Structure formats: C-alpha cells, structure tokens
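ping. complex inputs:
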Amino acid sequence: MLSRRIIPCLDVADGKVVKGVQFKNHEIVGEIVDLSQRYVDEGADELVFYHITASADGQTVNLDWVDAVAQRLDIPFCVAGGIRSVADAAARLEAGADKISINSPALERPDFIDEMVAAFGSQCVVIGIDSLEVDGQYQVKQYTGRPDKMQDSRRDTLTWAKEAVERGAGEIVLNCMNQDGVRQGYDIRQLAAVRAAVSVPLIASGGAGKQEHFKEVFEQADVDGALAASVFHKRIIPIPELKAWLSSQGQPMRL
Amino acid sequence: MQRVALINSGCANIASVRYALLRQGVEVDVTADPERIINADKVIFPGVGSFDYALEAVKKSGVVEAMRDLTQPTLGICLGMQMLAEASAEGQKPGLGLLAGKAQRFEDEPGRSVPHMGWNQLTPVGDDPLMAGIEPGSYVYFVHSYYLPPSPYTVATCDYGQPFTASLHQDNFWGCQFHPELSSDVGAKILANFLAL
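pong. complex structure:
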C-alpha cells in the first residue's frame, strides 16, 4: 500500500538552514547537509529545500549544496526557489535534485509549467501554492519570501491548482498561510477542497503543531504527504515517534 | 573494481543513480559510447521524462545497437525499464523490445492519485537474485504514471489499486519500476544484489 509521506521542509538562505519568524529576522537552524542526514536517519520520506528569498531577489539557488545533499541522501528531495527557466531547472536536476518546485515564476508565466513538463516529465514538476483565506475566499499570493514584495496574484487557489495540473504538474504543495507558523493544525477545509479538485498527489503545508494534526490531515483531507519545518527542526515532534504513532492509528507508514 | 556503465542519453537525471553506485564502491562510467558500454561489467539504463522524448535522445546518442548486443547484467530503471520493453501507451514509438510487455497508464480513479508517487511495498515473486534478502512488504520509492502489467518475467509486484510489475528479469536484462537509488536501505540492498550478479 502506498504510504503517506512525512516531509521536513528546510528553508535555505545564504547556504544555511534558517527559520524566519513571519518571514523575517531569520534564525540559523543548522548546516544543510548535517540536518538532511539527520532527517534521513530519522525516517523522513522526502525532503524539500526552499531557497526562500530567491524569487523576490531575482537570485537563483547556489548549486554546491544541491550536489552535496545528493551525494549523501538516498531518499528523494525537491528543490525550490527562483527557478525561472528550463535551463535553471536542468542545472538543479543535474546536480542531483529529484524534483523541482516552482511557485512565483509559474504565476508570472504559466506556460513555464508546460515547458518544464515537456522537458522533464510531470513527475519532476511540483507546483507550490501560497494560499491565503480572505473573507472565505482562497487567494494565491506571490513573492511570499519577502513581506515588502509579497503581492496578491489575483488568482483563486482552486482555479490555479486545476490549471497547473491541466498544464501537466505532477504534484501540488499547498501552503495555507493563515495556519503557517502558528501550530494550530493544517487547514483541513481548504486542503480537502483542493484534494477534491485535482487528481495528482497533494502535500499539506502550514500549521503542524502536534501529532494529532498529521492524523487529521491524512484522515480528513486525504493528502498524500504532510510537510512541516520547525516542529521537526526543534524535535517538538520526533519523526520516528510520529510515524510509529500514525501507523498504530491505521495510517500506512514506511517504518 | 568492477566498472558500471551508466548510460547518459542526455535527458535523464542521473546524479542520484551515480552517487548511489559510488556509495556501493564501484567505478561508475557515465557514457553514451557504445564501445565503453559493451565492455562494462554491468550496465544501467536510467530514464526520466516522457517516452518518445527520451527514446529519441537514446536513438540520437547511438547506444540502441549496443544495447541489443549486451550480454552482461543490465538494469533499466523506471522509464529506462519501460523503454527496454515493447511499447508504451505514453508514446507512438516502439520500445527497444528487449523486455516483454507494453506499458499502460494508471487510470484516474477516486482515491488514487496519478502519478503514483511515493513509497510503496514490494512483493517478491519466486527467488530471483535481484530480490535476495528483500522482505515482502519492504518499501521502495516510485514516481510514474505508466506501468508494465505482471508477466511470467515479473520478479516483484507492487499494488496500486491493481497489481503491476515492480521488478522483472528476462535473459540478461533486469528492470525496476521504482528507483533503487532513492529507496534508502532497501534500494541499496537491491543495487548491491544487482552488482553481485
């Protein structure tokens, strides 16, 4: 049976893993390769690296650490951050990334999704969506890495998710911004709505604070994976215990 | 030290495979040179992307004829395995025809996401050396929308709403639909088994 995936997310800035408080005043969490190896040892199913300031700055990710991570890791990992061309993506894949996640550049130019799919196949192309609930409407936000540059993309989240999949995206990571960083649980209602709208794998992001939140999001929103950062970095939720408990609760887990 | 030819057709993501082989302590020769492929101890045929696009790249690289002449153990991974088969519902072009079977697409169904992406369980069939020491129910990592149906050559199945071929063996060719290079300890064991053939 296909297992649910537990996915630590590592925000990367200046070659280190960082955690921002409301996206600013980044605090250094650790070295990229060391923390990645810890997560492999703890049984993480996949890793996601977000170069969080890349799109807003017009920078792209430095590739040395992608190569260093690929040398050590024997589980899949996805790289995100400022990838705006097929050539940008190809360089990351050649360095050893398994999947590429695109967010703001796909909003700027949706045809970029089609180009990525034609070059690398759907399985490689992940669309990250930062979604904010405003007056009961789900809106896609752009350039969320920098508060001073963040803007409303003028897109509805469900419509954008469907368009991304029609263009060939192989996976959606939905970051529910109302929940992000507050550890009050995933946005089940929004995730269930996106789950019903698209048939590709869906990864929940934003809001994990305790074990029960993972059970809820798997049971009630039927997502394929759940992503979290600080609760894993700080060992508030140890991954081995989390996976064993979810398994005892009937969730298919790779133990 | 044995030399493994890792076929580089120019479009596959081969860094993960290369690093996984280096962790096994073998010499890895990333190449599209027919001579170097034919003279290698083992050959690995990776693949990502779409069937016709990848097949075209393989044909341009001139390795197709070399592939037909191989007698040493050769492993196709994911799309690499499907390209070794007869055909795929994904493309118009015929495959290399070195493995029996035609790849089909998983139909969209409620409760089943396509692509099949993530960790799923192996059920070894028979006692093929590639699956030596692999317990039933071991998890490996899959990313694919197309699959080969079970056949007499299947050496491990997986279930995703229906059984399909996770691994097969025909003559000197083996195939893995999953990615052993991304499948942690279980994948490393399967690569070690291949290298020990």
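The mean pLDDT of chain A is 90.
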